[in-house]
Design a protein that fits this description.
The protein has helices spanning about 1-10, 25-60, 60-140, 140-175, 175-185, 195, 200-205, 210-225, 230-240, 245-270, 270-305, 310-325. By secondary structure, the chain is mostly helical. It starts with a helix and ends in a 9-residue tail after the last helix.
């Protein structure tokens, strides 16, 4: 049985014929073969332990010869394992060199990216400076000055219109109660009703000044005692001595014409739209610069984390173990 187990063991061994080992891959295959052979030897020892002892008593010379050869093979395997350790360490050194080269290339790529981003950032900042200078020039231009003069003039016209409206409102406000009483008794209240609702608007729309006819009827009603008023004399004074309604309407027309002319000039001015366009461009440019700065910061953070010192130190340590001499890697 012992001899049979040994024969089966020898049949399972497949030896790759190779005159020399030139690459790490070659050595790795040899290491794998040695590991598998060691496992097979260990399994053989376990499976033949009892049969060896029995066979030794009966066939000592034959068994002893085979056992001695297996012992020599086992010794070769163990010695090979010592060399295997060095090969594994060499393989690790090659891997470290590969990692270092990859990190060097990675560092180079990030440095180029950072350089490119900085150049783009410089261009963007220059464009922003130009836009801000353009905005300052627009605000100092004659068109901008003229525009604000037009706004000021428009504000003055609005003030004049407001003053006129206040005069109209104030005059008719004093006649509201008499007019409301007259509205109840008159047969034709159509010209009067708008004045009771909004006297200023009604006056501007009363181009024929029909309010005068209303005043005539109101005066007669007061004089005929059809309307009772506490201050009838004051009311009659206001009705019989009204302001110059025609001048008020003419003034309103003049102010409307001025307002129309000023508004047209303001609307035709392009200065404010140019300023708003430039402000929008500045805002967009600042956003671009902010995004570029964020990209630059991220790239710089990654670059700072690239550190090959750990790999170079590990490489030197392994080289010292294998060759009893430190091999230094110089990165330029």
């Amino acid at each position: 049985n012992y001899i049979k187990e040994v024969d089966r063991f020898s049949e399972l061994i497949e030896i790759e014929k190779k005159e020399s080992y030139k690459t790490i891959e070659d050595y790795q295959k040899a290491i794998k073969f040695n590991q598998e052979l060691d496992a097979q030897m260990e399994q053989l020892a376990k499976s033949t332990n009892k049969s060896y002892q029995a066979s030794q008593h009966l066939f000592f010379d034959a068994v002893e010869s085979v056992f001695k050869q297996l012992g020599e093979l086992n010794l070769l395997i163990k010695n090979c394992q010592k060399s295997t350790l060095q090969v594994e360490q060499l393989s690790k050194m090659f891997k470290i060199i590969k990692i270092i080269n990859e990190e060097i290339e990675r560092e180079k790529d990030f440095k180029e990216d950072i350089k490119r981003i900085k150049e783009a950032l410089e261009v963007k900042n220059h464009q922003l400076d130009s836009l801000e200078k353009e905005l300052d020039e627009l605000k100092l231009s004659d068109d901008f000055k003229t525009y604000h003069e037009l706004l000021k003039e428009k504000e003055g016209i609005q003030t004049e219109i407001k003053k006129l409206e206040n005069k109209i409102f104030s005059y008719f406000a004093k006649l509201q109660k008499p007019l409301k009483k007259y509205e109840r008794i008159t047969m034709d209240n159509k010209p009067l009703l708008p004045y009771l609702d909004n006297s200023v608007s009604a006056f501007y729309n009363d181009k024929e000044l029909k309010i005068k006819i209303v005043f005539e009827g109101l005066a007669k009603s007061i004089q005929n005692k059809q309307i009772e008023l506490k201050q009838s004399n004051n009311t009659l004074q206001l009705i019989n001595n009204p302001p110059n309604f025609k001048e008020w309407l003419e003034e309103k027309d003049i102010l409307n014409t001025k307002m129309s002319d000023i508004s047209e000039k303001i609307n035709n001015s392009t200065i404010m739209s140019n300023i708003e366009d430039t402000k929008t461009k500045i805002s967009l440019q600042k956003n671009k610069i902010e995004l570029t700065n964020q990209d630059l910061e991220k790239k710089q953070q990654v670059l700072e984390k690239i550190n090959i010192n750990q790999q170079t130190e590990e490489f030197e340590s392994l080289s010292n173990k294998i060759f009893q001499k430190k091999i230094k890697i110089i990165v330029k």
